[in-house]
Amino acid sequence: MKMLFSMFLIIFFIQNFIYLKHIVLKIISIKINEHYIYLLSFLNVISSIIWLQLIPISLFWAYLFLSVFYCLEIILCYKGALMNKIAIALTIIIHLLCITSIVNSLLCFITHNTINYIINESILFMITKIVTSLLCIFMMYILIKLIPSKYWPKLVINQDEIKIFVSLEIITVACMLSSSAAYHVDLFVKEHVFQQVILGLSWLIVQYIGIFMLIGFEILRERKINIERTLQLDNIYKNALIEQSDVIIQVDCKTGIILNHISKGIPNAHLIGLSYNQVISDVISNDINVLDREQIKKVSDLNYMLNCFKSGKSQYSFEYRLIETNKTNFEWFKVNVIIKSDITSNKIIALLIINNIQKEKDLILKSEIDELSGLYNKNTTATFIQDYLNKNTDGILFMIDVDNFKSVNDRLGHNIGDRVIEDVGRILRYIFEEHNIIGRMGGDEFVVFIKNYMNESKLETIATRLCRLMNKTYYNNNQHVTISASIGIATVFEGINNFRDIYIMADAAMYRSKQKGKNTFTIYNYSPQLQLISSKSS
Q: Contact at 8 Å (CB) between 490 and 501?
């Protein structure tokens, strides 16, 4: 018996330490040093001796004493609102009452004795107390594992809910204590014992429902606040976008219906509710530059947006050229696409934010273009050609030097010299296709990089035509100067992977044209054994 009693005291100490340290302290903070929890656990063990002595006399007074003791302990040693402390203290009392009722009743089934007999039989009585404490430890362990640390303080946030919870606890304690009056009956009734098991189990379940509801309500409340904050931020964000954007389109990706369409800050009510695919298809067919249409069809498609969202890509952008009214000029626009899930309506919403970026394009173009000739400047030309060579192994470089340009400036004046540069720019744009790289390297030196293979016959045709168009006389008063072009041509071959190398070859070919008397072209041919420059008369 002494061994059982000692075992109970040790287990009861562990139970109280876990309760005070790992349950109570997670919810409310302690007023004293945390190390005093050992002392409080020991005081609870001392109180249990009194509590055990009272049980055979009166279960009501025994648990009333224990309830008062725990409540005073929590109230005096821990911080927080009074109702919070009472709620926490009554939790352990309910566990002890409910588990005791279940354990006593199950032992009755096993031994076929009454609860009164078990209470008064010292060995069986101590066994029930040891099992009850062990079960309390086990259930506290389960709670600690199930409930993350961040959720424990949420139990006592809302005081109105805590008052309801305390009321429920008081009713539970009252019901369990009132049912304990039957413990002193000496008659073993199976139905009555079974009723005690169900009663203890039911009130314990109610207790846990209350605990998880307190946490659940606070999580829902927190989620609602986050949703409201998110919606508020979204509204602020959308308002800012509306003010700064040319067009905003909001579309339901699943149904394909336009939810909102705003142009220059003004809602277009006649477009809301229409099919996004139909509206965007009309825009692509009628208003977008033909060179951009295929790409825009792909990246503006709803299936493309949904696939991006499913793969974790919630944002992307693209650019297109919008044809102006006269169908000849165009302006650049940029579309930022933001795809997100709307938690309030269970929809996947795409927001298309469209802005005119022509000014930005103009600034970029200004930094890339030689102002006088209208062609790419030296740095831009070299960069574009090198970028091409990094990815491709073909191409042809024309090096064009304006013959007698210095004489134009000296004899006719720099105004005429500027006009020569302008005319050369126009001629080069006229002869060579738009997708090729045409640039002015400085002074009277120009380059053209053709981005594909061309046979020598066609090269000669283009070079001859260029020499013919460049051969022109300029006048100023009684003075006149005839200009022409000395052209060097170099073809990209295996081993050439940078602009500098092909530039040197084309420059060497152009120098040979100068030596031959100008107004001609030279094609640079290369082999490992022999460097051969072949000249052709224009």
A: no
- Taking only the tens place, the pLDDT of each residue in 190-229 is 767 777 788 888 888 888 888 888 877 777 777 766 665 5
Reading the block at residue 273, the tokens are: 């509710």
Closest Cα to residue 523, out of 485, 514, 510, 389? 510
Is the distance from CB of 350 to CB of 337 less than 8 angstroms?
A: yes
Instruction: Give whichever of 31-40, 203-212, 296-305, 364-373 has the largest mean pLDDT.
Output: 296-305
Q: DSSP state, 21?
A: I
Per-residue pLDDT of 382-428, as tens digits, reads: 999 998 998 888 899 999 999 999 999 999 999 999 999 999 999 99
Question: Phi/psi zone of residue 133: left (φ > 0), alpha (ψ -120 to 50 degrees), beta?
Answer: alpha
- Count of CA atoms in the C-beta half-sphere (13 A) of 86: 15
* Cα separation, 465 vs 122, whole angstroms: 120
Q: What is the pLDDT of residues 241-277, one digit of tens each?
A: 555 677 888 898 888 898 888 887 788 888 888 889 8
Distance CA 135, CA 146 (A): 16
> Residue for token digits 């940078």?
498
Q: Which two tokens stand for residue 135?
A: 């079960």
Amino acid at 156: V
| CA distance linking residue 157 with residue 394, whole number of Å | 72
Give pTM, 2 decimals. 0.45
Neighbours of 116 (CB within 10 A): 18
**What distances in angstroms separate CA 407 from CA 373, 402, 404, 415, 507, one per listed residue?**
19, 11, 5, 13, 22
End-to-end CA distance of the chain: 123
**What are the angstrom distances between the C-alpha of 78 and each of 24, 25, 75, 88?**
9, 8, 6, 11
Pairing relation of β-strands 479-491 and 472-476?
antiparallel
